[in-house]
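User: Hey, my collaborator sent me this sequence without any context and asked if I could get a structure. I don't really work with proteins. Can you help?
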Amino acid sequence: MVKFSSAKDAACEVTTKELHLLVFPQKLKEGTRAIASHPEEEFMKGVISWPGEYDFDGIFFKGIGQSDGSQVSYVADIEGVRCAFVDAPLQEWSDSDIEKLGAVDVLLVMPDKEKAVREFIETVDPRVIIFPGTGDTAAILKALGESAETVSEIKIQSGSLPQDTRKVVVLK
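Assistant: No problem. I've predicted the 3D structure and written it out in structure-token form, which is a compact way to encode the shape of the chain:
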């Protein structure tokens, strides 16, 4: 089971039995498992911030660089759930970058321009969309024609993903 929960000073926190990960934290700390959306010049143990392939305790992360590598998004198979993590500003995604994402079960996407977010979501077509509680999600939800449940955490198992519908949540 993968748990996505709200986190102070980060987009969210992802936890499993083996993993405790901060997604897009505002401040990086050495030794804290985290993925950062902008490359860090100084190496920090436990932090991924560059495009490439990484292994966190047997969980394989792929960093996808955009804007000449100045922004990084991630995809990972976590306990059978394909998760994508995309920060704002939302970049234009090439077909090859979309292929690198593959079939996404859960998409954590930061609020940004509603048209860009809507088009990206329509292209990726995830089963679950998670918006962090930061930013204006009302306009994005309206553009998507979706309603969202506001929660402090959501637990997802590979066999419990919605099949014919989409679940949208906002982490508070």
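In plain terms: The domain at 52-171 is CATH 3.60.15.10 (Metallo-beta-lactamase; Chain A). You can pass these tokens on to your collaborator as they are.
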